[in-house]
Amino acid sequence: MSGWIAGGIALIPIAITTRWLMIHAGTEYNPVDATRERIAGHYAEGDASLTLQADGTYTSHNLNGLTAGTWSHFDWNLNFSKSTLQQARWITICGKPAILPYYAGPDASPGLVLQKQIEYDSDD
How buried is 111 (Cβ within 10 angstroms: 0-12 exposed, 13-18 middle, 19+ buried)? Predict the structure, then answer.
């Protein structure tokens, strides 16, 4: 029986590493296709949300330092007027757009990640 316990304990680091790789694999912190059209959209995680309009305006809900105003980007870096956010960043995770409003760098925990929500055509 103790062999099963030791084997189970030995698998814990493997399981933790596998989970970390599944979450972080495919995360691109500097995506090359950061165009206004690709970035614009509605992003959410839990009760926090951010909507970036193609006309350069934004609104947010439950994000510290961000309410409404205008947005712009330089590559993957996002700038928001009327905001205290610093180093907000547009990224992709497994090819899917996301926003790190409080970017901490690829070597640190990114914290909140807002995932772009899929838009459905009402005619479908």
Answer: exposed
The DSSP letter of residue 124 is -
| In a domain? residue 33 | yes
Cα-Cα end-to-end distance for the chain: 57
Contact by Cβ (8 Å): 27, 93: yes
Whether residue 102 has pLDDT greater than 70: yes
Q: What pTM value is reported for the model? A: 0.73
Provide the number of structural domains found in the chain. 1
**Angstrom distance (rounded) from CA 119 to CA 124:** 11
Cβ-based neighbour number of residue 9 at 10 Å: 9
Q: Kindly state whether residue 21 falls inside one of the protein's structural domains.
A: no
Residue of 4 and 45 predicted with greater confidence = 45
